[in-house]
Amino acid sequence: MSRGRTRLLRAAVTRLLSSLLVLWAAVTVVFVLSRASGDPVALLLPDDASADQVAQMKQTLGLDRPLPLQYLDFLGGLVHLDLGDSLVYKEPVTSLIIERIPATALLAATALLITVVVSFLAGSIGAMRRGTALDRVVMSGVLVGQSTPAFWVGILLVLLFGVTLRALPAAGYGTPAHLILPATTLAIFSVAVVSRLLRSSLIEVMGQDHVRTARAKGASEARVLMGHSLRNASMPVITVLGLELGSLLGGAILTEQIFNWPGIGRLTIDAISARDFPLVQGTVVLFAVTFIVVNLLVDLSYAIIDPRVRSHA
User: Fold this and answer.
1) Residue 111 contacts by C-beta under 8 Å, 6 or more apart in sequence?
2) Which of 171, 188, 230, 251 has its CA 20 to 30 A from that of 100?
3) What is residue 217's predicted lDDT score, i.e. its pLDDT?
């Protein structure tokens, strides 16, 4: 094996071990916080439940055991991909999460697609028409998108397109029309962030010698953009896109609640309200694993896009 591949493999193993440490820290924090939020038995039993009924319920759910034992059981279950049973639904947490993953994955993937397409258009226009009226209009829209909270955007879209114009469904799930408003709500902030970053990165790259040389040889602006600038300008953008995917999953919690979208986010809100410890822990583990995997893929993509990363890995 060459020295470069050995370094790349060593870096990948180191990154994987650090990711496992981050995952352990995340699941430990959520375990502690979920126990500190209150007693779920108080919500599962009626107000006039006797002390014997409370004690029996705690014994049934395993909540009468010392916290260290509950924690070790939780970690042991994770190793075997067993997240326990929901206190409310009385079903395995893994099954409940698997049922909701397609809805959230569809929402996040659509929002990410909107982010990539719109931000690359806006960022490219801003860089190629820098200082013009068109650039100022685009950047003003980007600033508004970055300054407006997602939940406020969602409410406005519902009022405008769902209630006033009746052009799109205000809530629900099942058809492409149901996807437009929540995906747009989820994507607006990410579009603003990526557009500004891509514009700045493109302006810097388009001022470099190899781009000026391409222009001197008669290359069109489209050729300069697609063939000589976007590739070099995409490195920081890919990093932010990876982080934004994690933000999209986090933002899906509020967006799914606003649009009554039956995904992981809405399941998480319901679980928190009911103090359903196993279900809250399961959804947080899913978010943490997804975020870690995305960041690993982003790191590995550097080596594919830029050969200098492979040689210095």
Assistant:
1) 183, 184, 186, 187, 190, 248
2) 188
3) 77
Whose CA is closest to 87, among 286, 256, 281?
A: 281
Buried b (16+ CB within 10 A) or exposed e, 90-108: eebbbebbeebeebbebbb
User: Taking Cα atoms as reference points, which of 35, 156, 173, 158 lies closest to residue 103?
Assistant: 173
How large is the average pLDDT for residues 99-116?
Answer: 91
How far apart CA 143 and CA 165 sit, in angstroms, is 26
Overall average pLDDT of the 285-294 stretch = 83
In DSSP terms, 92 is beta-bridged to 85
Q: Is the dihedral of CA 74, 77, 83, 84 positive or negative?
A: negative
> Can you give the pTM of this predicted structure?
0.78
